Amino acid sequence: MVVQAGIVAMLAALAAVRFTSVAGPAGLRFRHDGAASPEKYLVETMGSGCALLDFDQDGQLDVFLVNGGPTPAYRPKTPLRNRLYRGSGPTAGHKFRDVSDQAGLAPNTAYAMGAAAGDYDNDGFPDLYVSGFKSSVLYHNNRDGTFTDVTRRAGLENRTRWESSAAWADFDNDGRLDLAIANYLEYDYSANAWCGERKPGFRMYCHPQNYEGLPAALYRNNGDGTFRDVSEQAGLHAAKGKGLGVVAADFDNDGWTDLFLANDSVRNLLFRNRGRGPSGPAFEDVTLASGAGYSEDGAAEAGMGVDAADYDGDGLLDLFVTHLDFELNRLYRNRGGMRFSDVTMASGLGRTAVLYSGFGTRFADYDNDGWKDLVVVNGHVLDNVSLYRPDVRHAEPMMLYRNVNGRFQDASREAGEAFAAPRVGRGLALGDYDNDGDLDFLVSSNNQAAELIRNDGGNANHWLALRLVGRKSNRDAIGARITLRAGDLIQHEQVKGGASYLSSSDPRVHFGLGSHAQADRLEIAWPSGKRQVLEGLRAGRLLKIEESE
Amino acid sequence: MIRLVLVLYLAQQPEEGMRHLREALTHSEQGRHEEALRALEKAEKLLPATFQLQYMLGEAYWSRSEFQKARRHFEAAAKLDPRSAQAQFRLGYARQLLGDAAGARQALEAALGLEPGLALANLSMGHLLAGEGRPGDALPFLERYAASRPEDLEARLAIARILSQLERREQAIAQLKAAQNLSPEEKRIYYLLGQAYSAAGQAEPAREAFAAFSRLEAAEAARKRLGQSAPYLGAR
To answer: What are the angstrom distances between the C-alpha of B14 and each of A504, B23, B37, B47?
Structure first.
């Protein structure tokens, strides 16, 4: 009887989870400008990313939204700008205020793509890397509400590469965040081709197969505010890709952060971190044997966004990669020893989004039941795709998949209007912006308004959020592995670098605890090698945990 | 069979509607699918709803990748003639493609109930069950299909994938070797072989299979590069 009552209560709680779009009322009035032109430059299709970060360390998440930029066919009178919005607390209604001018963000001189927040100098305030098309910026956080462009001084100038997603992580476990960057492809406006039929309205953006790919880049943090390009020495030049998504995580639980890149139309890349070499991190390309480079039977697909999480509770991080229409979004189950199986069909994800093109994605336990669910933002790359594929639309709804004991169910229809609305979705960042104990979503769309999607009702179940602060380890604790036990519920999580598409999420680690009012045991394996155990942690709060001496 | 029934049916219909339908049949046979669809749409306005017309409309929309519309017409056709295994199969396949697994299973079960040997319905059911994480249940359907089409590479590959999932690796490798005889330049075979050998702990054959896969993939990429100006559409 007690069990039945518990189940009824849980079902009632789950039925109540709804998502509401609140950007406008919350003060986020940002519209992305994708520089669309008749020239159909490929860059126009990409959209730009977004970030949830607490740049002023006041405990309230702030929002950073990336904008496009000028192209030879598009020179807006008012230069396009990325925008920073400061979040406020409950007394101010969790509203956001545009503080871009005060923060010192400059107008975009080139097309901006992604955002990656990370405290590279361990001063306690997140810095910001903004990747872009042949121009990228590293903003140092001055700890007074302003940022300084330190790109040149840091040695991160980019004049030649099309950078997409970026990930901060400490790849050599020296206590400092390094920077991994997915590079897309070799492209120049002057060599733009005509693709599609030669009749009015039918010109299309060209497929990436028309261009050469690029290897990923790795910049090692020298510890003095500068970085050194160690891509080649680290082994990343062994393979070219067409990188759009990147996630840095420890897939074999050996204490060294590995690197996965989602590539567009060529195989993904999985680099196993073999530990510190003479000049920093040393990687081995294990893509082929890993099974995570291709679809189940060896087809390279249009990889866009990516995330890693332990969806099935076996202690190993699995991978999820989003793709274009008619290519399924793939779930790769980690079987240990850097071997993955494509379980897309068996997991229930299957063909549920076959007509959609997935971009930003995150595993997110939106209902706090202790199982990692999945969120995907969709939107085709071609503005005129319906001329070629009548069942496919440019703007598409988001998808929400509920994880029920390791199998996914499409929960999009029950998620509310915010999920159903069609959009040309690109970036997705995850975080509890209103600190109410459930995960909200920030979405950026190409040529459309950014959205803040509030989770209403996810906190009906218990939860616990952690903010890990490294001492010997990097201060953001990226690379930390966490095991949480609450009754019969055991969860494994990592503080990861990168993930999603062009976006950066709240670094706090969120655990749903279901009906458990406390976490019985929490074990943290810090990147430094130190292990820390905490017991009897009351649910319903954000816990700051500093690495023990 | 469907065509024969259609010809017989045409003889009994009003003149103008019949004319459109005849035109549609001719266009369809000559591969002019757009014209066939236009003629069918005209015929639909003039003729009563019949199985043949709905089925042909389903096929026409299918060929245009308009799967929602195709599904609706196959649904109508199946309703008009519940004894048509072919209509049930097409409906099941359309539902499967559109992500309606439960609806697909219902229609495929109906198709196989009417005609257990219907090869493509067996194949679809096998894929559907595999997709539901039931490889053991999927295998007999795929094997039934493969028995009727021993030269079908896709069936061999599907069976090999299922056997790998069931960790019957030696049998998977045997299927893949049979597939290799059918199509020695098919890169997927070598990828699956590499995975199977690798999972079985046979490093050297795995390395050889992956090397063959990489060689074939590079050749394919070079061919694609020659065909520049490809539009940005996902692979079907």
So the answer is: 65, 14, 19, 7
Nearest to A504 by CA among A158, A131, A114: A114
Dihedrals phi, psi of A413, to nearest 5 degrees: -65, -30
**Taking CB atoms and an 8 Å cutoff, what residues of chain A touch B188?**
297-299
- Give, for all 549 residues of chain A, the pLDDT tens digit: 445 545 544 554 455 799 999 999 999 999 999 999 999 999 999 999 999 999 999 999 999 999 999 999 999 999 999 999 999 999 999 999 999 999 999 999 999 999 999 999 999 999 999 999 999 999 999 999 999 999 999 999 999 999 999 999 999 999 999 999 999 999 999 989 889 888 889 999 999 988 999 999 999 999 999 999 999 999 999 899 999 999 999 999 999 999 999 999 999 999 999 998 887 899 999 999 999 999 988 999 999 999 999 999 999 999 999 999 999 999 999 999 999 999 998 898 987 888 999 999 999 999 999 999 999 999 999 999 998 888 899 999 999 999 999 999 999 999 999 999 999 999 999 999 999 999 999 999 999 999 999 999 999 999 999 999 999 999 999 999 999 999 999 999 999 999 999 999 999 999 999 999 999 999 999 999 999 999 999 999 999 999 998
In degrees to the nearest 10, what's the CA dihedral of A98, A103, A108, A111?
Answer: -80
Distance CA A81, CA B198 (A): 50
Chain B stretch 114-143, residues whose beta carbon is closer than 8 A to a beta carbon of chain A: 130-133, 135
Q: What is the DSSP string of A343-381?
A: -TTTTT-TTTTTTS-EEEEEEE-TT-SSS-EEEEEEB-S
**What is each CA distance from B29 to B12, B26, B32, B35, B109, in whole angstroms?**
21, 5, 8, 11, 30
A411 CB within 8 Å of a chain B CB = no
Q: Which of residues 306-335 of A touch B (CB under 8 A)?
A: 323-327
pTM, two decimal places:
0.87
